[in-house]
Amino acid sequence: MLSFATTVFLSAFLLFQIQPIIAKMILPWFGGSSSVWSTCLVFFQAELLLGYLYVHLLHELLSPRRQNVVHCVLLLLSLATLPVIADPAWKDVAFANPTWNVLVVLAAAVGMPYLLLSTTGPLMQAWYARSFASAMPYRLYALSNLASMIALLSYPVLVEPYFRVHDQAMAWSAAYALFVVACLGSAWLSWKGVSSEREVLKVSSEPVPRPPLSECLLWIGLAMTASLLLLAMTRHLTQDVAPVPFLWVVPLSIYLLSFILCFDAPRYYYRPGFLVALPIAFLVLDRVLDGGGMEVPVLVSLMCLSLFVFCMVCHGELVRRRPPVRHLTLFYLMLSIGGALGGTFVGLLAPVIFNAYFELPIGLFLCALLVTIVLWRDLRLIRRLLLVVALLAYAYRLGGISIDYVENYRVVVRNFYGQLRVDDADEEGLGIKRRILHGRINHGEQFLAAEHRRQPTAYYCEDSGVGQALRGVAGERPLKVGILGLGAGTLATYGRSGDELRMYEINEQVLDLARNEFSYLGDSLATIVPVLGDGRLMLEREPAQNFDLLAIDAFSGDSIPTHLLTLEAMQAYLRHLKSDGVLAVHITNRYLDLRPVIAAAAEQLGISALIFDLDPAAGDRFCRHSVWVLLMPAERAAQLAKTFRGAEKLAPRPGFPVWTDSFSNLLGILQ
What we know:
It is a single chain. By secondary structure, this protein is an alpha/beta fold. It is built from 21 helices and twelve strands. The protein has helices at residues 2-26, 35-61, 64-78, 98-131, 138-159, 165-193, 197-204, 213-239, 245-264, 271-289, 296-320, 328-353, 359-375, 381-406, 465-473, 508-516, 520-523, 535-541, 567-575, 595-605, 634-640; strands at 411-415, 418-427, 431-438, 441-447, 480-484, 500-505, 527-532, 547-552, 577-586, 608-614, 626-632, 647-649. Keywords: Membrane, Polyamine biosynthesis, Transmembrane, Transmembrane helix. It comes from Candidatus Accumulibacter phosphatis.
């Protein structure tokens, strides 16, 4: 048993350790969007489905020893695909079709090894059951989920903070080679355990009723709902904070924990207790979906606890309905189909067919519906009627919340890079104020009244760091300014006749809204040059632009994508600046303290960093709290500091390592 357990544990650990490694590796190529992780999960679930299908067909069509031969040959062939490092050439085409290109990059980098790892759990269980007829193979499934959770939780704590992503991939590749050796050993033990193929065929042919189609559909539905809720709630957690491994792995670890508890010992799923906890979890999510404000730790904790309840109910009911060992591979195939359907719906279909985040209300309703179906036979008539009334009332409530997502907004659009909304609000004494929101984060606003429409607002007002910088570098000659991240286009208000503002924006929908819903671009006296694409990647391809000022204002939710803050990114920015040019980096954030990141890069590059932490006066309706860091040569800083208000020198944090394209640690800057 030790050999089988070792193989299963190692395969599951590698299966989930590679997910954050490869996702972090390709995240910068696709604008740092949280959708990269969702799309990665879709790929991993699809690979898992293919792996389980392969095991089911292998188990049903081939004799035991032929199974050994086929699988061992594929294992040896997969070694030729190592190491698992994504080809950087994909950076040049990533922007064209991000969803499809994420899938293709993953298939090329990790497709074969991941597929073989995904087969190990059910295959080893089938071989184990064949070798030890009296043993319970489902416990190996719990062991695999335990290994998966350890892999996920160890990544942000023990791996990401200390190793470059390239080194992580190389170490993983070496560990995969060890897994192949272990799996070959288990295959040899299984081969020896088959004393007579005729005897095995005789045992396997004993009549065991095949699960009916309705039972298979219920397995699929329960697995799909848990997967759908996992991805939808992960998206909720990452859209406004940051698409970081820590917020990826915690929900996924909770999802796996429910598998461990339910499959290792079904008694952990205490049905009456979890059925009482389920409506409480629904009420908690109702508060979240309704937009109720709460502190981030409270929000994360409540969503994770709710996800745990949902997953325990779905997976607990699955375990209650697991079939005899003869149909073990069919059972796992149905689970993988459900997981893939849930992931595909959230990661691929929802951004295309919905203009708002409707998938979470849909997942909650499916969970309530499936619980109703599961309990139906055990209830008397009066309780059935009460349950149906409760289900209809909850559906009505979720419908109302979904309508609120889009009601009273001028425009609601969505794509791979997230949801954008534009709304109007009446500001007493100043008229209508229009905002553009990414998720729930304000990415720019404008007063529409003629006397205020050219007034810079929010994080870009004249007292902000970037406002003072633009005024400070302005002279008699025209300016050339670069801006990464468009938003509403507010910085265009600083443009003068003869100036050129080169604006880089990855999301075409943002550019459309800035042109059609706001007038900053149209009113500007400067020449506006929009450039579609990831700002850093576009700058790396372009010749030196000789900017007087380059502003980094590209946000995903409430955080700048990490690949825009690395040492290599700063070097790319400086290449496009004049010798006395100014680099302005917007680091306003509720959840991450980006000061030490910028300070470490500035120290490494030998330039000065001035920080502007603006807290506007009470009653100031044109300015919002903003934090900007200006980087420039020391002589230039000394010259401009005389005209700046509120500037302070940004001191490095002792011992804080500089971020590079191969290393970053977001846990170290959580606030």
